[in-house]
Known about the structure:
Blueprint: E1 19-21, H1 22-29, H2 33-42, E2 49-51, E3 54-58, H3 59-69
Helix pairs in contact: 1-2
Amino acid sequence: MKDMQDGSVEEIPDLLADWISREQLARVLGLTTDTLSRWEARRQGPPCTRIGRKTFYRRLAIQEWIRAQEQAHPVRKTRGRP
């Protein structure tokens, strides 16, 4: 940010550099924000934090959560009779 009085530039750290918003994560994963909200309520999705009304996810936590979802042989859920 520029200081108007002496012309010097003040360094402002990007505090959210390692975080992404719920909207960004939904877009990347091809999900809706409602799905992520539901996962948060059920404690199923990646860990998140709230700042005011905004929800943010730490990039490293998302990657760890995705790795934890990995299965060697995914099991298909069946509906109805086997």
